[in-house]
Amino acid sequence: MLLAVVQPWPEGKQPTDAALMERILQQDSAALETLYDRYGRPVYSLVLRIAQNPASAEEIVQDIFLQLWRSADRYQIERGPLEPWLFTMARHRALDFLRLKSEKQRRREDSDSDVLPSAVVRPDPEGDIDQARRAEKIRALLTSLPAVQRRAIELAFFEGLTHSEIAATTGEALGTVKSWIRGGLLRLRESLGEAGS
Amino acid sequence: MNCEQLAALYDEYALGVLEGEERAEIEAHLARACPTCTPGVADARWVVSQLAHAAPDAQPPAALRGKIMDAARKPADPARAVAPFEKPKTSTSRSAFPAWAWAAAAALALITGYTIRQMNSQGAQLAELRKEMKLAAIQNQMLQNQLEMNRMVAMVMTSPDSVQLKLMPKDTRMPMVHAYLHPHMGVAITADQMPSMPSERTLQLWIVPKSGKPVSVAIFHPDAAGEIAMVAPVTVPKNEIAALAVTDEPAGGSPQPTTPIAWMAAVN
After folding, report:
1. How far apart are CA B110 and CA B199, in angstroms?
2. What string of H, E and C letters represents the secondary structure of B193-255?
3. Rounded to an integer, what distance in angstroms lies between the CA atom of residue A112 and that of residue B233?
4. Is a pLDDT exceeding 50 seen at residue B91?
5. Is the pTM value of this prediction over 0.90?
6. Which residues, in sequence order, are CB contacts of B94 under 8 Å at separation 6+?
7. Which residues of B touch A7 (CB under 8 A)?
8. Average model confidence (pLDDT) for chain B?
């Protein structure tokens, strides 16, 4: 037999992201289905929150997973964890959509094509895999923040605004906005530290 | 600012809230692959990415999964990367494998069967056939990559948001290089009738900011026909760009220009 056959997964074992990406590199579309089942819902939730439009969110999510299908070779080289990469790519794509929609020309932090998996990493990702626990911590953290501080972080993350744009939107002083965001991010770090421990 | 001072800003940079000098400082460190800032920002991106979990949970439409899979399996998609074809999938993703490759693989299988039965000594020929098939797959992938790049170049060139720039050569015998600067998609560079370059040299495109040092954008070579068509991301806001410039650098590029500017265009 000349042609190697893609082997089925061992019974009861969940393939890792890296193993699925290996399969995608071999054009195994079942691996893409598994990745979609794993990340489709959180990615769609994020994109819908930013784009605020189900039809556009659907289109953006489709683009993201097709990008994954096409960029498997890049992942092979970089070997970063997939979830944060997907979230970063999804956020950038959705913010681009918002900016194009409002014909806003402000440059984003960096382009999605720039951000390789290895550019979105934390040391020892294997030790920090409890996604559900992390998600719960983050939601709890944001709920615990004062409403104005939470609003500032949401404007930054979900609407792509800068410090001064947030200050203009909220009518708060620039320095106040900066300290809200800095304080919120510090608490986010602390919270993730606890979640990962 | 030094890396220690910048470290306090990594999270805000990854969140995209930084502006002006602070953002430019971090980007300058990232552009030169600073060993402190690069992993620091990668970690910050990871932290910020986790805010995605704060989005209200939403169920994607049931049809979306099917749409993605149908699009992924479409064999005619020119943007699809070609995977190594020693390991095609034999069940559900059969249609994702290019038809020509199936035909070639089938032919190879027949040839192999014949070879095993009739001429066991012809293993070398079989290896040669495999090598040729691998080469064909690589060539096909290169063509598809070029098609994708050309598509991106066309998108940037035809966008009404792009600003067209003519990079004039210092050496008047050289052709002009065209640039199309788009606020989001980056910069597209096109040129033809370029002279060939030795492999140990490369052309490097720079953004010359209104203040600060040049920022590397891309390195590139003219192809065998002397043509250039490429798109590269731009990390400096358009209103902070004074000029685009191209220099001749050692292979792999340089952190800062090491030779005089060979082409340049001012950005208004």
Report:
1. 41
2. CCCCCCCCEEEEEEEEECCCCCEEEEEECCCCCCCEEEEECCCCCHHHEEEEEEEEEECCCCC
3. 9
4. no
5. no
6. B88
7. none
8. 81
Query: Nearest Cα to B180, choosing from B201, B205, B203?
Result: B205
Nearest-Cα residue of chain B relative to residue A63? B68
CA distance B170 to chain A (A): 31
Residue B100 belongs to what H/E stretch?
A: helix B99-118
Tell me, yes or no, if A188 comes closer than 8 A to chain B by beta carbon.
Answer: yes
Identify the weakest region by mean pLDDT among A167-181, B100-114, B165-179.
B100-114
The answer to whether B233 faces chain A, any CB pair under 8 Å, is yes
**What are the backbone dihedrals phi and psi of residue B33, each rounded to the nearest 5 degrees, phi first?**
50, 45
**Distances from the Cα of A130 to the Cαs of A90, A192, B27, B50, in angstroms?**
21, 11, 32, 12
Mutation target to probe the A interface, by most A beta carbons within 10 A, among B49, B116, B185 is: B49
- What is the chain A residue with the closest CA to B58? A45
Say how far apart CA A125 and CA A131 lie, in whole Å.
11
* Proportion of chain B above pLDDT 70, given as a percent: 81
d(CA B3, CA A178): 20
Using the Cβ of A168 and the Cβ atoms of chain B, whether some distance falls under 8 Å is answered with no
Q: Are B249 and B204 in contact (CB under 8 A)?
A: yes
